[in-house]
Amino acid sequence: MLHYLYTYPETIVDGDGIRFSIYLSGCRHHCRGCHNPESWNPASGHPLTREKIEEFIEAINSNPLLDGITFSGGDPFYSPEDFLPLIKEFSERTGQNIWCYTGYTYEELLEDPARRPILSYINVLVDGRFEQSLYSPKLEFRGSSNQRILKLK
Ligand code: SF4
């Protein structure tokens, strides 16, 4: 079962506008200087149960101020067989614009048959590993300048 670290019901730092952010557990990239190494373990945090999914979708659908949903982590693409049905359900049941952070590059995801289908549910992908030497606090919505904010649709 997927686990999540925490959620932010209204954040302005994880993409455009006011967003409901879900931080999923599990990451294989192990970037030096990672802001959140406890997120690497896929069992960190709390189980993302059916009850929690319903709770989050209800919170999203009852908040008229939201501009979208953001999936972050960890790396949401850690377990594509779990993430694909999850993002599909959030997309279809909320109709919200979706941003997603990942340590993979867009090109790596395109070449991966298990992960590529997930891209069709993402409006904006922030891609690439965190590179400490390319870190700047002035970068909006990303940690290092190698990471890209890619509008997929
Ligand atoms: S991809 Fe993100 S969560 Fe994963 S190790 Fe790198 S900075 Fe940390």
From TrEMBL:
<dbReference type="InterPro" id="IPR034457">
    <property type="entry name" value="Organic_radical-activating"/>
</dbReference>
<dbReference type="InterPro" id="IPR012837">
    <property type="entry name" value="NrdG"/>
</dbReference>
<dbReference type="InterPro" id="IPR058240">
    <property type="entry name" value="rSAM_sf"/>
</dbReference>
<comment type="function">
    <text>Activation of anaerobic ribonucleoside-triphosphate reductase under anaerobic conditions by generation of an organic free radical, using S-adenosylmethionine and reduced flavodoxin as cosubstrates to produce 5'-deoxy-adenosine.</text>
</comment>
<keyword id="KW-0949">S-adenosyl-L-methionine</keyword>
<comment type="similarity">
    <text>Belongs to the organic radical-activating enzymes family.</text>
</comment>
<protein>
    <recommendedName>
        <fullName>Anaerobic ribonucleoside-triphosphate reductase-activating protein</fullName>
        <ecNumber>1.97.1.-</ecNumber>
    </recommendedName>
</protein>
<feature type="domain" description="Radical SAM core">
    <location>
        <begin position="10"/>
        <end position="153"/>
    </location>
</feature>
<dbReference type="GO" id="GO:0046872">
    <property type="term" value="F:metal ion binding"/>
</dbReference>
<dbReference type="GO" id="GO:0051539">
    <property type="term" value="F:4 iron, 4 sulfur cluster binding"/>
</dbReference>
<keyword id="KW-0479">Metal-binding</keyword>
<keyword id="KW-0560">Oxidoreductase</keyword>
<keyword id="KW-0408">Iron</keyword>
<dbReference type="InterPro" id="IPR007197">
    <property type="entry name" value="rSAM"/>
</dbReference>
<dbReference type="GO" id="GO:0004748">
    <property type="term" value="F:ribonucleoside-diphosphate reductase activity, thioredoxin disulfide as acceptor"/>
</dbReference>
<dbReference type="GO" id="GO:0043365">
    <property type="term" value="F:[formate-C-acetyltransferase]-activating enzyme activity"/>
</dbReference>
<keyword id="KW-0004">4Fe-4S</keyword>
<dbReference type="InterPro" id="IPR013785">
    <property type="entry name" value="Aldolase_TIM"/>
</dbReference>
<dbReference type="Pfam" id="PF13353">
    <property type="entry name" value="Fer4_12"/>
</dbReference>
<keyword id="KW-0411">Iron-sulfur</keyword>
